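in:
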């Protein structure tokens, strides 16, 4: 069995011999990681003649949202940069030949004839039929940069009617990241304070103009934050205000001086001290290094006035390898004490590296879809690339530059072609 078959038929609950409701082509076209860092290649893969996975559906992919983790070969800063041999082995042994991408938007092409995919008999799974427009995520290394994918139903929802396929493809990973980082803590403060609108929550988004940051601003407002403050560069100040930020602080002011940044954060008045921080900038990847540490700046123990509340929640999207190990233990084993008992901090803040959870996120995608359909959530797509290895390599270069405002999307099916289907 070839590469396509091993990828598409790995589920333990696959039932050979059953038919599929819907039609599929004999092959799919996809883009895969090459053996050398930064390289991609195009492939045509044979589809299995029979695939029946009760909790999966076949999706014709219309658009794919790209994220920095895709450009970093999924590995990112999870291994120390000086572990060159390990990183090279991971690239060649685990990553090379796999399809990049986590996000997608498309239409249901085929369903298992027998199984749970034809109707909704669980609270967290959408009812689907062939032709339905959907959006969602794929597990790591199973990829979305392909014309057809076998997508888990518990990681998808109906595409927001208010969004195009390109816009919807830009939303899943960043939307889930923002929602998972913010919603539990804002809901807790609601219950704790007896409030109905999270009035106690002041949210700070570091890197407010990026893919995750600009969506996090909107999600925080939708969840009822009292204030949302964004940190960005001069050219993105107006953009962050447009996303709904109450205050915007320019980190490049006075040459990017950290004391100036601290003073400007303090000048946000009622927003400071902050209750929740979503740090989309901090990273251990040498390509992402900043002139100063936001963690140290925000958690600095200054007796005159602190930037964070004593019980503030601090979530980082990147960090040293040991923090990735801790985050993995928390995610896989459910042991939240890994942060309390394996770190030494002078502050009392709940400071953790965040690792997104993909399984069983349909209801979270539904919540994002509702926000979008109500006109309260709109991902900004800065560039749309065509479906070719060369164009996706260019898109990866853009992502690694860390100067993208919003999101980058690869379009597989043009809007005019969609209207013909």
């Amino acid at each position: 069995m070839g590469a396509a078959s091993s990828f598409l038929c790995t589920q333990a609950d696959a039932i050979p011999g059953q038919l599929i409701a819907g039609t599929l082509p004999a092959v799919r076209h996809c883009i895969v990681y090459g053996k050398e860092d930064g390289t991609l290649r195009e492939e045509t893969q044979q589809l299995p003649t029979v695939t029946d996975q009760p909790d999966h559906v076949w999706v014709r992919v219309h658009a794919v949202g790209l994220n920095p983790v895709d450009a970093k070969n999924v590995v990112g800063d999870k291994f120390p940069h000086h572990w060159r041999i390990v990183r090279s082995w991971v690239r060649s042994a685990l990553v090379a030949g796999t399809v990049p991408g986590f996000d997608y938007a498309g239409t249901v092409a085929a369903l298992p004839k027998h199984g749970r995919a034809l109707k909704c008999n669980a609270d967290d799974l959408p009812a689907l039929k062939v032709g339905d427009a959907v959006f969602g995520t794929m597990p790591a290394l199973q990829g979305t940069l392909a014309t057809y994918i076998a997508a888990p139903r518990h990681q998808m929802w109906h595409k927001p009617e208010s969004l195009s396929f390109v816009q919807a493809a830009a939303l899943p990973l960043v939307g889930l990241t923002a929602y998972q980082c913010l919603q539990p803590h804002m809901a807790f403060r609601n219950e704790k304070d007896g409030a109905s609108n999270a009035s106690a929550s002041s949210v700070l988004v570091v890197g407010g103009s990026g893919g995750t940051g600009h969506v996090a601003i909107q999600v925080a407002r939708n969840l009822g934050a009292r204030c949302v403050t964004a940190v960005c560069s001069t050219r993105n100040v107006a953009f962050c205000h447009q996303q709904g930020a109450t205050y915007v602080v320019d980190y490049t002011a006075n040459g990017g001086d950290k004391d100036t940044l601290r003073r400007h954060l303090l000048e946000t008045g009622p927003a400071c001290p902050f209750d929740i921080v979503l740090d989309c900038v901090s990273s251990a990847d040498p390509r992402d290094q900043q002139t100063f540490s936001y963690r140290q700046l925000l958690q600095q123990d200054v007796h005159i006035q602190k930037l964070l509340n004593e019980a503030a929640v601090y979530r980082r999207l990147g960090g040293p390898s040991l923090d990735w190990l801790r985050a993995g233990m928390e995610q896989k084993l459910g042991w939240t004490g890994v942060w309390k008992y394996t770190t030494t901090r002078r502050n009392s803040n709940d400071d953790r590296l965040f690792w997104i959870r993909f399984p069983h996120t349909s209801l979270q995608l539904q919540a994002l879809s509702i926000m979008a359909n109500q006109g309260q959530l709109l991902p900004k797509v800065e560039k749309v690339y065509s479906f070719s290895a060369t164009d996706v390599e260019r898109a990866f270069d853009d992502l690694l530059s860390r100067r993208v405002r919003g999101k980058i999307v690869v379009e597989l099916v043009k809007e005019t072609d969609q209207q013909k289907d």
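note: The domain at 174-353 is CATH 3.40.50.720 (Rossmann fold).
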